[in-house]
Amino acid sequence: MHTVAVGNWTLLIQDGSLPRIYDSYVKSAAFVDQLEPNALEGRELFVGVCDGGSMHRWPEIVITQRYEDASGTFHPGFLVVPETSILFIGAGERLLGYNLEKRERVFEDRTDYGFWGWARQEDYVLMSAELEFGVWRKTGEKLWSAFVEPPWSFKVSGENVELDIMGQLKTFRLETGAVALTNVS
Length: 185
What we know:
Elements: E1 2-6, E2 9-15, H1 22-28, E3 31-35, E4 43-51, E5 61-67, E6 77-81, E7 86-91, E8 94-99, E9 104-110, E10 115-121, E11 124-129, E12 132-137, E13 142-147, E14 152-157, E15 160-165, E16 168-173
Parallel strand pairs: 3-5
Antiparallel strand pairs: 1-2, 2-4, 4-5, 6-7, 7-8, 8-9, 10-11, 11-12, 12-13, 14-15, 15-16
């Protein structure tokens, strides 16, 4: 099991199987979210969340799911926004958001073919996936997404994001997803 501390939160993460003391974690948690725990295919993902400021030994939040790992190509990713207490999780094709303070899920979304990672840019959380680029507020509300096709990459400059999709450059406003006008010489 991996342990990651971010802000006031400590994440306990186990990928591939549930912890041996999983039942004890569930009994002790104030909030449990089990997504498709009995699916026959895929990998188990366990996330326990502890308030880093307490001496409490058990996680207050337990999240479990099964996800397709595409033969080890895609791996789970996590991002915590300390000032809003929002946890972003991506695994396989599932995207999840949790308000850790309120102990509730704030969104569930999907992306086709597989999640790559999360990134933070000021007030925005950026999601990369095989066929999608998405933007959320740091409070967990999805703003917009765009279809992309590999190979692709992105670069943020101020309030804009530039997507390089198979050599074609497109610039979008982070807040709205509207195509941004670029300076033409």
